[in-house]
Amino acid sequence: MQGDAQREVPGRYYDGITSRAHRVVLRVENGEACLAGEAERRVPLAQVRVSERTAHAPRKLTFADEACFEPDQRAALEALLHATGHRDSAVVRMQQSWRAVVIALGTLLLVLAVGYLYVLPAGAKLAARLLPVSVERQLGQGLLGVLDRRVFDASKLPAARRAALAQAFARMAPPRDGAPPYQLVFRHSRIGPNAFALPSGDIVLTDQLVELLRDDHAILATLAHELGHLHERHLTRRLIQGSVVAAAGTVLFGDASALVAGLPALALDLRYSREAEQEADDYAAAMLRRNGIGLVHLERLFTALQELEDELGAPPPYLSSHPPSAERLARLRQQLD
Amino acid sequence: MSAVFESAVPALAREERIEFTATGGEYFRIWIVNLLLTIVTLGVYSAWAKVRRNQYFYASTRLAGSTFEYHGKPLAILRGRVVGVILLGAYQAALRYHPPTAGIVLLLIAGVMPWLVWKSLQFALHNSSYRGVRFGFRGSWKGAYLYYLGLPLLAGLTLGLLYPLVHQRIKRFQHAESRYGTTHFAFDAPVGQFYKVYGILVGLLVLGGGVAFGVVAGLAGGVAALNGGTADIAVRAGQVLIVFAGVLGWYAFTLCVVWAFMAILQNLIWNHTQLGPHRFRSTMTWPRLAGLYITNTLAIVCTLGLFIPFAQVRALKYRLESTTLVVAGSLDDVVAAKGGDVNAVGESVADLAGFDLAL
């Protein structure tokens, strides 16, 4: 070590008072950094900050009063640091090693995949369950009003028919206890057959869907599917999951552009949406079974949707918020067997 | 001894080009490790990551033989990020649960934004040093409210007619109120020049839009006329194709105009900035800037984001290396703002306890 300590590193010293460069030589003696030349200084090594090691930027020493030393050549300083036993932090050593970086990249992908597939859905489910229904109900307040102005007219179904459907559904027991309160809302739609649940607890059913299905039990199956969305707190869960995915996307791609960051987030969110649809399908199937209604009526719903899709042409499954009806049919048939 | 150190001899003006020695490969390694740690710590580490990144970029920026140094502390940055997340979170929550409140939150954010911008300007400059001497910002918070809230509101009321003026005033505020040690920067780009650059931008966009619309309408109409005015599937498809090509062409044209605008503006701003007796010179050209952005975007998309660190280094390298400092005399005479200047500076530094906001 004695020989190493005699190493000399020529460089420039800035005293922190003016921008003038002082030609100096750096040496380490008795645990002190010693500068000699146009400026003289001795400082215990412990009070000297060494900048992190990088391959292309020069390393420099900074003193407590912000005076600093920049070596003319990095190799000499590197050798001196090595001789004095200076060690970089674990993170810096990782940053300098391609092998560690490849491992970090693999770990990153693994963490993201596990988080997306398991941790986030489970966490969102728990969080949604802890959220009081009253808070959830405020989420979509006013949404129905907007829809009424834009896409809906008053229902043209006879009042008796609406009351009969509402009563029949009210008599059905949910597959498990604790179903949230809901209101059935009938509307005439300007955009075709549809049914959906709003976080406010409104289950909207369009006249067109009632006419399309022509089967009261299939209508009840549809309502059961929508009640499943409410009961499973799907909208709240998706809000949570969507926010987290968007935030992670910003961290990962935020430096690139809003478009590059936004598109993957959208695609990832659609997968959660299809999962929610499957869960609601399972809920509907369980509800029908519990009330002694054959699953064929749920099948009737999917078949009707399938015909509609064939007619209109449906988007590919990975660009869709709902699973294709054929897939939903196949899943249901498995349950029937 | 290199020319840099011959301070005793007053030389003629000489040019010092900024050199940026960072490489994409090295920044990629820093980026990946920091990204992993950031995700694993649910974002908390991002403040440390920012310090690492800035330290690397500053140390890689070389002017006249010396490099820059970044002194920001992670906890100060973390504090800034927490404030940012709370503000944005409050806005998002209000928007979802109770839209009228969101308006109030937005007003609140607009109300504190100038103060936050002012704080982060101070933070960014105060934590940068070159040759052991720190930079600083002396602008007042009142100035920040005037230039970041008052004037933009006025520009909005005049439908953007005042915007070039606002832009010039903001740049003047940023540059003229900055200092290196006790030496102040100066900014003398005239408002007229800003109006000229903005005028060219708007003119090109309007002209290009008119030409694009005319060509597309003409071609689409022509296709229909050639087929005797029928509107069968083939004609409609042809029209859709023409409109699509037109939109694509318009998009490419807009991007090129915007890149040219950015290059001209960057040159305008830096060619009128001075540090004491030294002038800056900026020589960005829009074809190089356009080429840079096109290749960066394509590469980022094709590599699913892995090219991001390389893209950042390339963009930064071009920006920095197009800047030259025309040194009049010597760079050795700058005095740190420590001795005689304690009161004015010391106060703001104490006040600065540390805060950074980079949304």
From TrEMBL, chain A:
Magnesium among keywords: no
Protein name (Swiss-Prot/TrEMBL): M48 family metallopeptidase
PANTHER family per the UniProt record, alphabetical: METALLOENDOPEPTIDASE OMA1 (PTHR22726), METALLOENDOPEPTIDASE OMA1, MITOCHONDRIAL (PTHR22726:SF1)
Assigned protein family: Belongs to the peptidase M48 family.
Keywords (A to Z) from UniProt: Hydrolase, Membrane, Metal-binding, Metalloprotease, Protease, Transmembrane, Transmembrane helix, Zinc
Domain Peptidase M48: 165-334
Occurrences of domain DUF7092 (ranges): 9-83
Membrane-spanning segments: 100-119
Entry cofactors: Zn(2+)
Entry-linked InterPro entries: DUF7092, Mito/Outer_Membr_Metalloprot, Peptidase_M48
Species per Swiss-Prot/TrEMBL record: Pseudoduganella chitinolytica
Cofactor note: Binds 1 zinc ion per subunit.
Keyword Glycoprotein in annotation: no
TrEMBL record, chain B:
InterPro entries cross-referenced by the UniProt entry: DUF898
Transmembrane segments: 28-48, 101-125, 145-166, 197-228, 240-270, 290-311
Protein name (database record): YjgN family protein
Membrane is among the record's keywords: yes
Keywords: Membrane, Transmembrane, Transmembrane helix
Pfam families linked: DUF898
